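Anyone up for a design puzzle?
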């Protein structure tokens, strides 16, 4: 019974654009922290860690797929994942981190994002049409009205992404499960990607550190 959040950064590209984009990133971060901007994003290519104190999601569905990532040597590699999808989701105390090793001069650098660290539901992380490509998950989960079926059929949660089907990264006739509601506590997971129609990150904080501490 899985579910949750994705991301990743190619550091060679990141290093080239980091300096000129700092001001723009800071402005977007402030808007997100103030709840003034809904972001749509997709980041992939490297696995990352995610934790959450609590995730409450309506319209949950899950199916298998294959993500394309990279090895430490930079070569492409396929990774089997469980895609967990939510029509709407609310996340309390979310943390996302990714470590990139072997950066010239610096060594290992940790990129860490945190958001939604509030008991006030309005100041937590909110997402719509959220997809999380999960490789590994630990959580205490409760599902309401759960059942199994076929991935390509009508699901309670978001439908399979057509790009996955077109690229043969997911089987529309394969196994799937769904539930009206999913409640996940003390979430720890490794993921390869996260996409959302909208992703509102209240109280967003971002940090870059050499040999920094990950989310777990």
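Challenge accepted. My sequence:
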């Amino acid at each position: 019974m899985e579910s949750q959040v994705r991301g990743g950064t190619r550091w060679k590209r990141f290093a080239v654009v980091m300096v000129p984009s700092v001001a723009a990133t800071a402005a977007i971060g402030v808007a997100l922290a103030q709840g003034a901007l809904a972001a749509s994003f997709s980041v992939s290519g490297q696995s990352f860690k995610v934790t959450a104190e609590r995730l409450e999601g309506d319209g949950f569905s899950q199916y298998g797929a294959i993500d394309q990532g990279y090895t430490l040597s930079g070569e492409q590699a396929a990774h089997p994942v469980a895609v967990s999808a939510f029509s709407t989701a609310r996340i309390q105390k979310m943390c996302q981190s990714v470590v990139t090793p072997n950066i010239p001069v610096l060594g290992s650098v940790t990129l860490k994002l945190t958001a939604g660290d509030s008991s006030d539901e309005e100041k937590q992380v909110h997402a719509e049409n959220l997809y999380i490509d999960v490789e590994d998950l630990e959580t205490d989960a409760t599902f309401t009205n759960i059942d199994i079926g076929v991935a390509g059929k009508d699901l309670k949660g978001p439908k399979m992404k057509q790009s996955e089907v077109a690229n043969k990264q997911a089987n529309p006739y394969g196994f799937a499960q769904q539930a009206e509601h999913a409640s996940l506590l003390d979430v720890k997971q490794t993921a390869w990607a996260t996409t959302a129609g909208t992703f509102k990150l209240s109280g967003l904080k971002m940090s870059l550190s050499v040999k920094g501490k990950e989310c777990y």
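A detail worth pointing out: Helices lie at 11-33, 162-166.
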